[in-house]
Amino acid sequence: MRAPDPFHYPDEPHVRRHGPQGYTHYRQYREWLRDEFRFRCVFCLAREQWGQVKSLFDIDHFQPRVLRPDLVVDYDNLLYACRTCNSGKSSALVPDLHGCAYGRCLRVHDDGTIHPLNPEGRILIDELDLDDSQRNVFRKLIITTVQLAAKHGQQDLLELYMGLPSNLPARSEKTASRRQFAAGGSPHVMARAAGARRSA
Questions:
Q1: Residue 142: which residues within 8 A CB-CB, separation 6 or more?
Q2: Residue 102's domain spans which residues?
Q3: What is the pLDDT along the chain (200 residues), one digit of tens a residue?
Q4: How many domains does the chain have?
Q5: Would you list the DSSP string of the chain?
Q6: What whole-number distance in Å separates Cα of residue 75 and Cα of residue 63?
Q7: Quick check: is 37 in a domain?
C-alpha cells in the first residue's frame, strides 16, 4: 500500500469552492472554512484529526484587520489556520495561496525538515517559523506513522490520520451562497463525496 503524503502542499493555487454571505461576524464562517480548506491549516497542513479542533485552529485574515478593516467579514479574505501559524503570521503579509501554489514554494522531506523552493517559500518559512525544530520533529513523527501504517496495511490508522474528522460541519440553509456546491447540498456532503473518508 502506497503511503499518502500528509505534508504535500497543493500544486495549484487555491480556488474557492464556497462563497457564503450575510454573516455579521467572521467566526460565523468557521464551518464553511473548515470544509473549504479540507479540515487542515493552510500554512503548515496540520489536520484537525491531529489535535483538538477548538483549541488548535483559528480563522486567519489574509489581509490583516488592521490594514483592511473592510475585509473583516469577507469570506474570500478568510483562511483556516492552526493557532501557531495564525499567531506567527499576525499582521504580516505572506504569499497569497489564491495566486501562488504553495506546492511550488515549499517542500517537506521525510525527516520532517522543510525547505523553500523559491523566494515566496522563504517568506512563508520565515514569517510562520515553519522550520522550527519542534515542528520538524512533529512532521517526522506524523510522516513515519503514516508510512508505517501503509507498509503494514493498517487502514484504520491511515483513516485516523488522513481521513476526514468525525465532526463534519452541519450547515444551515439560511445563508445564500455565491457558488453552488458540487453535491447540491452542504459542505460536509461535498467533502464526503470528494473522498469518501479520505481528504485530499
A1: 6, 7, 50, 161
A2: 26-186
A3: 789 999 999 999 999 999 999 999 999 999 999 999 999 999 999 999 998 555 689 999 999 999 999 999 999 999 999 999 999 999 999 999 999 999 999 999 999 999 999 999 999 999 999 999 999 999 999 999 999 999 999 999 999 999 998 888 765 544 444 443 333 344 443 444 344 334 44
A4: 1
A5: -PPP-TT---SS----S--B---SSGGGGHHHHHHHTTTB-TTT--BGGGS-HHHHEEEEESS-TTT-GGGTT-GGGEEEEEHHHHHHHTT-----TTTS-GGGTEEE-TTS-EEESSHHHHHHHHHHTTT-HHHHHHHHHHHHHHHHHHHTT-HHHHHHHHB--SS-----S-S-BSS--TTSS-HHHHHHHHHTTB--
A6: 12
A7: yes
Radius of gyration of the chain (CA): 17
Query: How far apart are the C-alpha atoms of 193 and 30, rounded to whole Å?
Result: 20
Residue written as cell 512563508? 124
Is 163 a domain residue? yes
Q: Would you state the pLDDT for residue 111?
A: 98
Angle, helix 133-151 to helix 155-162, in steps of 10 degrees: 150
The answer as to whether 34 is a domain residue is yes
Asked if the structure places residue 197 within a domain, the reply is no
